[in-house]
Amino acid sequence: MNMKWFKSIILFLSFSIIHMLPAQDSDMESLLFSMTIKDLNALSSEALDSITEKGDWLLIDGSLAALTRLSGQDEEYLLDAQLIQGEWKGLEEVLKYSCHLIFQGDEWADVVPDKTPRKPIEGQILLNNRVLVLATLLGYEIDNRDPVPYLLVHKIRPLP
């Protein structure tokens, strides 16, 4: 059995166990576990507004494609990161789905730096890393008639 197959099985079992556990924290009862970026991009404005108002939690994976620091050097750390997923349509076209991750607070500065450091610290999440994110929906903007969600990050971890 090759290592990639083994990792896939472990990841699947981990998610299966998490999904079967009862929510200990009342906030986790509203975890939208099966939602993807593609699903978020396809939702209506009303559905996105409902998720925002209810404060539902989202568990989303993808790759960090862009990092933009929104705060000044002397202000509280505020970072906008584009998270993307894609899928092949036939043999010649790739469909791209995206959302924005908002990292707010100085505790994120060393975890997700806005620039790739010369000597990265183990555990840092950098541009092009695949990640798993626990977030809530802040809102969205309409881009070419499609919603682009903005998620406030609460937890993040790199994926192999």
Task: Give a description of the structure.
21% of the residues lie in helices and 41% in strands. The chain is α/β, with parallel strands linked by helices and 160 residues long. Mean pLDDT is 87; it is low at 5-26.
Short description:
The chain is α/β, with parallel strands linked by helices and 160 residues long.
Layout of secondary structure:
Elements: H1 3-20, E1 31-32, H2 37-42, H3 45-54, E2 57-69, E3 78-89, E4 93-104, E5 130-143, E6 146-158
Parallel strand pairs: 1-2, 4-6
Antiparallel strand pairs: 2-3, 2-5, 3-4, 5-6
Characteristic key phrases:
160 residues, alpha/beta, five-stranded mixed β-barrel, 3 helices, 6 strands, 21% helix
Low-confidence stretches: 5-26
* Approximate helicity band: 10-25%
Q: What letter string, H or E per element, gives the SSE order?
A: HEHHEEEEE
**Helix vs. strand class:** alpha/beta
Main sheet attributes: strand count, strand direction, barrel closure: 5 strands, mixed, barrel
The best one-word shape is globular
Individual helix count = 3
Report the β-strand fraction as a percent range.
35-45%
Rg: 17 Å
Q: How many beta-strand segments?
A: 6
Determine the mean pLDDT: 87
Name the strands of the widest sheet in spatial order. Answer: 2-3-4-6-5
Q: How far is the first residue's CA from the last residue's CA?
A: 18 Å
